[in-house]
């Protein structure tokens, strides 16, 4: 599986900048960070046992 090099990463970032614009980048980064935090939180929490009777 090939890895992403420095120049490929720069190219991807430039394309994102062109598509979304400089004003939207902080908002996108904030949303991405929040999503990653929520994902980590969800994977680290133990499953809650459901004790409700089914009937």
Number of strands: 0
Write down the secondary-structure element order.
HH
**Structural class assignment:** mainly alpha
User: Could you report the average pLDDT, rounded to the nearest whole number?
Assistant: 85
Radius of gyration: 19 Å
How many helices? 2
Largest sheet: none
Q: Assess the beta-strand content as a share of residues.
A: under 5%
Global outline: elongated
Helicity range: 55-70%
State the end-to-end CA separation: 50 Å
Low-confidence stretches: none
Q: How would you describe this structure to a colleague?
A:
By secondary structure, the chain is mostly helical. The chain has a domain at 10-44. The protein has helices at 6-20, 25-44. The longest helix is centred in the middle third of the chain and has 20 residues, at 25-44.
Write the layout of secondary structure elements.
Layout: H1 6-20, H2 25-44
Provide a compact summary of the structure:
With 55 residues, the chain is mainly α. It has helices at 6-20, 25-44. It has 2 helices and no strands.
């Amino acid at each position: 599986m090939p890895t992403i090099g420095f120049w490929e990463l720069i190219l991807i970032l430039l394309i994102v900048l062109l598509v979304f614009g400089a004003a939207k980048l902080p908002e996108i980064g904030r949303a991405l960070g929040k999503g990653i935090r929520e994902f980590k939180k969800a994977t680290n929490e133990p499953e809650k046992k459901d004790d409700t009777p089914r009937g």
